[in-house]
Amino acid sequence: MLRLHIRKMSSVSKPIYQSEFVNFLNASHSPYHAVHSIKKHLISNGFEELSERDQWNGKVKHKGKYYVTRNNSSIIAFVVGNMWQPGNPLAIVGAHTDSPVLRIKPISKRVSEKYTQIGVECYGGGVWHSWFDSDLSIAGRVMVNDTKTGKVVAKLIDLNKPLLKIPTLAIHLDRSVNEKFVFNKETNLLPLAGLACDSEVSDKKEVNESSDDAFNSIKSIVERHNKELLDLIQKELELTSVEQIEDFELILYDNKESCLGGLKEEFIFSGRLDNLTSCFTGMHALTEAADLDIEKEKGIRLFGSFDHEEIGSSSAQGADSNFLPNIMERLCSLKADNTDIESPLTKSLILESSAKSFFLSSDVAHAVHPNYATKHESKHKPIIGSGPVLKINANQRYMTNSPGIVLIKKMADTAKVPLQLFVAANDSPCGSTIGPILASKTGIRTLDLGNPILSMHSIRETGGAADLGYQIKLFQEFFKSYSSLESEIIV
């Protein structure tokens, strides 16, 4: 057991994290794929799946490792300490699975000037001009009629080849393009999908392919979307016919692979670093700390990653939902012998656990931009490769405060992880995270932090390779030591 402990703790300095993270990014082109990648990692490390649809009595045990998903786009995983009992603390790391993207509209079929186009909707606050001239592919989930069972099931799909393009207008037709690139998100952000055939160009009316005695409350999938796109989906999912496709939630992504970059490969070039970075570091920290000192652990070590952060988190699977509170309620309603605790004692124990717990809200931070350094507060300029950034805001856009800084500093000193501080300049807007949402919802003490990146919300962001190991080490130490440290910082 001691040898295992040494191997796991020493592995954080190895470059395997960097290449594995690149593979994780290339396998996680949508929130559904990100959760699938996290599940695969958890299962390979001995975690068992639980369902919100079931009772957990007798299933959740001391030293057990579990995960539960919601909508297949949010996931919570946890390890139960050997000495856990309701009312004890939880050490929580949180992230989000979504990123700003273009999403295919419910009726996406478009034809213009003999080009086949696909209608898309902007999701989140993307740097949309960065999407022009990129090779775009499509990923997401498809609802399919299973001919064997008669049920409608969700299937992941990633077409993973260059299919679409949003071309810029040539400078010869717009001499001012280098002065200010202005475009209409509804009409100028339509991707090209191919050349339209003559029948598509001349067809001015909508075709109803249903028979007279068949009723469709919504137009058929063939009427709403380009046939060529549906054919690709059918082929990829090995369906017998397009008619098996009931509906889908598909997004566009940059088909250029994520990779290491820089003269010394010190950078990671990729989309979705916001916030798959924290998904990756959080899941690794949990699995690698799962067995560390677990015999004397009196708390629960929990990692959660939520969908819809980029649009405010107010959804059934967002951080502003009851997902985390419900999991906490389940965990605080089980006795040591796995029988139910009588209400109203359960409510009191949930409140006790919340008061003792701590939440590290992990979302990427703004690294100082060498070409726009004046956009940063002069004394708070995080640098890529120099460790996680503690994010602070007097107006509570971030939840970091002095007791939290004292706590995280103790852990960082032990793990030998450098930390940086960030405050937005007074003349600059400040974003927010899931931290304030979950803190106000649960009353759990919270600190906001994240690894620094450049080009946040662009189709192609830049992060630091070394920062992965730093953040994993910090989260490992947090999981391992929080329950013993939490009572030492009095507020």
Give a verbal description of the structure.
- This protein has 491 residues and is α/β, with parallel strands linked by helices.
- It has two domains: 2-99 and 271-488, Zn peptidases (Aminopeptidase), CATH 3.40.630; 101-254, Aminopeptidase i, Domain 2.
- Helix content is 28%, strand content 24%.
- It contains twelve helices and 20 strands.
- The chain has helices spanning 2-10, 16-26, 31-44, 198-202, 221-224, 227-237, 273-289, 323-331, 345-356, 402-415, 434-442, 465-485; strands spanning 48-49, 65-70, 74-80, 90-96, 101-112, 115-123, 136-145, 152-158, 192-195, 245-254, 259-261, 267-270, 300-306, 358-362, 365-366, 389-392, 420-423, 445-450, 452-454, 461-464.
- It has a nine-stranded mixed β-sheet, sandwiched between helices. Strands 11-12-20-19-15 form a five-stranded mixed β-sheet. Strands 5-6-9 form a three-stranded antiparallel β-sheet, with no helix packed on it.
- Strand 5 and strand 6 (115-123) form a beta hairpin.
- Keywords: Aminopeptidase, Hydrolase, Metal-binding, Metalloprotease, Protease, Zinc.
- One of its GO terms (biological process) is proteolysis.
- Belongs to the peptidase M18 family.
- Its cofactor is Zn(2+).
Overall tally of domains = 2
CATH architecture of the largest domain: 3-Layer(aba) Sandwich
Oligomer: single chain
Strand order of the largest sheet: 1-2-3-13-4-14-18-16-17
Q: Given the helix and strand composition, which structural class is it? A: alpha/beta
Number of strands: 20
Instruction: Give the termini separation.
Output: 37 Å
Q: Helix content range of the residues, please?
A: 25-40%
